[in-house]
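Re: the 184-residue chain
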Amino acid sequence: MSTTTAAVGRLTLRPLDPVEDAELLHGWVTHPKAAYWMMQNAKPVDVERAYMDIAADEHSHALIGLHDGEPAFLMEYYDPAHRELVGLYEPRPGDVGMHFLVAPTDRPVHGFTRAVITTVMARLFDDPATSRVVVEPDVSNTAVHALNEAVGFVPEREIQKPEKQALLSFCTREQFVAATGVAA
């Protein structure tokens, strides 16, 4: 899976290696910009352990996103019938939960984060079994709410998760295509 735009460049995804990528991810998830990731005080070993757990879990997956070949973002996806949202909503067949994190940078590229979420969504809808993507960002994370809306998400309701008050939102394949023009 790869996307390329003149303004942003080439975005690709590769499997995350919990051991090899732990130091890189530690810098991303503990950065002040990643406060909503809730790993501010994590040690490198905590990050490695967290991603080892994901790698060993048949219901969760993590990928590293590359920008012109260099690591630049993180994508996680999961089965909400078994992880994250169990008991908080009624999952449908084809639902996939998603998180993404853009790495901190000293040289921001205009439109980059929107290109990242579009790439992440295209990757999820590349699987014909995916019919709807589910997200549950913190209710106070207005920046991600705007990005979600830009790719077709529609908020349903607030839910209380153990770690946060979240805005449960959904995006169907058709909503994604209508919002972005990207074939899915």
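The first strand starts at residue 2 and ends at 5.
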